[in-house]
Amino acid sequence: MFVLQYVLLVGAVAVGVLVRRKQWERLCRVGAGGSVSATGGVDLVGRVEKVEESVRGVLAAVVVLSRTVEKLGVRFRVLRRAVTDPISETATLAEKNSEATRILAAQGNLLEEEIGSIQKVLYAMQQEQQEKQLELILAIGEASRILDDKQDFLGQETAISSSSAPDYANIRDPNINGTSDF
Q1: What Cα–Cα distance (Å) separates residue 43 from each residue in 52, 152, 181?
Q2: Record's superkingdom (predicted)?
């Protein structure tokens, strides 16, 4: 029995080898057309060559793309360096402008307060001036009334004195002519 099993095992291995060899020949067989043999096999060498050519083409494309990416990387770094300075300058200017705006706003508020206080002082001075003008007008009015009363009084007194008093009309006052000894 052991011998029979051994013979069957060797036969199975031999049949397996033959089947694999036939499959391999069918895959590797080069036909007259190049890709398919007369028995319907596939040209494995042709397929491998096509794959190798495709891989070479892909490698060439990868090399070209790699160079392009490298150039773009360099351009990006140069552009970033070129843009970084203007951006930082713009940020600095914006900060200075905001600071100047705050200072101007503070000065504007201070000026508004000063203008308000100046207006109050001017209004008070105007009121005081108006009061003085009013007092002056009242004083002039009172002086004119006093003069009118004095003239009325003098007019009554002259009427009384002309009948009993000496005539002073001919007496000269040195200040009346505009000549004075002083």
Answers
A1: 14, 153, 154
A2: Eukaryota
Q: Is 58 in contact with 46 (CB distance < 8 Å)?
A: no
The mean pLDDT value of the chain amounts to 81
Among 52, 50, 53, 33, smallest CA distance to 41 is for 33
CA separation, residue 89 to residues 9, 79, 104, 173 (Å):
87, 16, 22, 92
DSSP reduced 3-state for 67: helix
pLDDT (0 to 100) of residue 36? 47
Q: What is the pLDDT of residues 82-111, one digit of tens each?
A: 888 888 888 899 999 999 999 999 999 999
What is the rounded CA–CA span in Å between residue 61 and residue 69? 12
- Centre a 10 Å sphere on the Cβ of residue 163 and count the other Cβ atoms it contains: 7
- Could you write out the DSSP letters of every residue in 108-125? HHHHHHHHHHHHHHHHHH
Longest Cα–Cα distance in the chain: 198
Spatial distance between the Cα atoms of 58 and 55, rounded to a whole number of angstroms: 5
Q: Which of 47, 44, 13 is nearest to 28 (CA)?
A: 44
Per-residue pLDDT reduced to its tens digit, 53-71: 999 999 999 999 999 999 9
* Structure tokens given for 180: 């004075």
Determine the Cα–Cα distance for residues 154 and 144; give it in Å rounded to an integer. Answer: 15
